[in-house]
Amino acid sequence: MKLDVDALRYLSKDDFRVLTAVEMGMRNHEIVPAELVDRIAGLKHGGTYKVLKNLLKHKLVHHDSSKYDGFRLTYLGYDFLAIKALVNRGVVAAVGRQIGVGKESDIFEVAAEDGTIMVMKLHRLGRVSFRAVKSKRDYLKHRSSYNWLYLSRLAALKEYAFMKALGEHGFPVPDAVDCNRHCVVMSLVQGYPLVQVKQLQNPDEVLETIVGLVVRLAEHGLIHCDFNEFNIMIDDNEQVTMIDFPQMVSVSHRNAKMYFDRDVECIFKFFSKRFNLSYQESEDEYDETEADVEEIERPSFSSIAKTTGFLDKELSASGFTRKDQDDIEKFIEGGTEQKDTTSSDDEELEDQEHTHIEATDDSVAENIDFLDLEDQKQEDAAASCNVSIQNED
Ligand code: ADP
Ligand code: MG
């Protein structure tokens, strides 16, 4: 189980044409009927079926004949479509090792043509479970018409749009490089997640910086909602970078205060435990005996001058709309509870009793091979699908 991009170099134009046809069919079919794939791809002389066999061999599609003869994309198939697009755009030239695996993402090092190392985050919403307020079963029952392709794409788009807008407003975030489908490419952050940091020269300064970020976010109308030691990176100079934005919400969200307080609480708790910093348990509780360490004031949500909608323009400039935000909020932690309505997509769902969310798929990457590219392969690749990938050494 790995992200083996080797096959990417051997896939032909027709392979990608059929793979794209399956993707298109999945807009309204969980399993795309083979003849529909054939119709969309439009290859002559039954070419589609031969190509499907090849895609199946490479585990880029999954065959399902339980109801009818049909196909769906695997994660790997979707990964290939995204990576291919990024390669064609000249953004990515090589895929390297996996540097992170989250519940809902896989993170890889990638290289640009000039050798710059960047980070590629592949969103996998629906892989294990949602960070949903509701249980997975509930989710599956009510909302499975949103398939993982759609949700993962939305999560990536949201992450990209927020990263870009936050960066433009001077927040310490990775540079948002590009985004395609469920994939975000960003700059590599030097340093380590805070959770791995055992010692700091100036823990109270770092804490102050981090708390300052939570406040500044709120002033810009935003709450991170997953602000913890896993999503804060620290470099050797104790500079802070925040990452991981798919669950951010607006300060106008009805649970905004709770999410804000939870983010703050998380940070204070971690610092107090790991670096022995004292802090006020709550706004009115204050332990005098620990006051020898400089107190860092706990921000209160109500006292922050918040600017709602401030980033809306920038976000929609990246193609992330209010509707997208509403959609994604229904599924990830920080989001609203499911609406109790019979909206059109609920009705649609009832018609689609066979829909389901991907469980762990055999194509999900767990570790990765470096691309070791021989010249011959490289030429083949360039000829067949415009992949030009540099040597890895
Ligand atoms: P998840 O949503 O799965 O938690 P994250 O965006 O938090 O994904 O990334 C998971 C891990 O990958 C991080 O804790 C960090 O170690 C690493 N990582 C993510 N983005 C970067 C980056 N831009 N630079 C360096 N490491 C990163
Ligand atoms: Mg994270």
UniProtKB/TrEMBL annotation:
Cellular component, GO, one term: preribosome, small subunit precursor
All residue ranges annotated as the RIO kinase domain in the record: 64-294
Enzyme class: transferase
Alphabetized UniProt keyword annotations: ATP-binding, Kinase, Magnesium, Metal-binding, Nucleotide-binding, Serine/threonine-protein kinase, Transferase
Feature: compositional bias, Basic and acidic residues: 332-342
Region feature (Disordered): 332-365
Cofactor: Mg(2+)
Catalytic activity annotation: L-seryl-[protein] + ATP = O-phospho-L-seryl-[protein] + ADP + H(+); L-threonyl-[protein] + ATP = O-phospho-L-threonyl-[protein] + ADP + H(+)
Gene Ontology biological-process entries: maturation of SSU-rRNA
Cited InterPro entries: Kinase-like_dom_sf (IPR011009), Rio2 (IPR030484), RIO2_wHTH_N (IPR015285), RIO_dom (IPR018934), RIO_kinase (IPR000687), WH-like_DNA-bd_sf (IPR036388), WH_DNA-bd_sf (IPR036390)
Keyword Zinc-finger in record: no
MF GO annotations: ATP binding; metal ion binding; protein kinase activity; protein serine/threonine kinase activity
UniProt-listed Enzyme Commission number(s): 2.7.11.1
Similarity comment: Belongs to the protein kinase superfamily. RIO-type Ser/Thr kinase family.
Name under which the protein is recorded: Serine/threonine-protein kinase RIO2
Classification lineage: Eukaryota, Viridiplantae, Streptophyta, Embryophyta, Tracheophyta
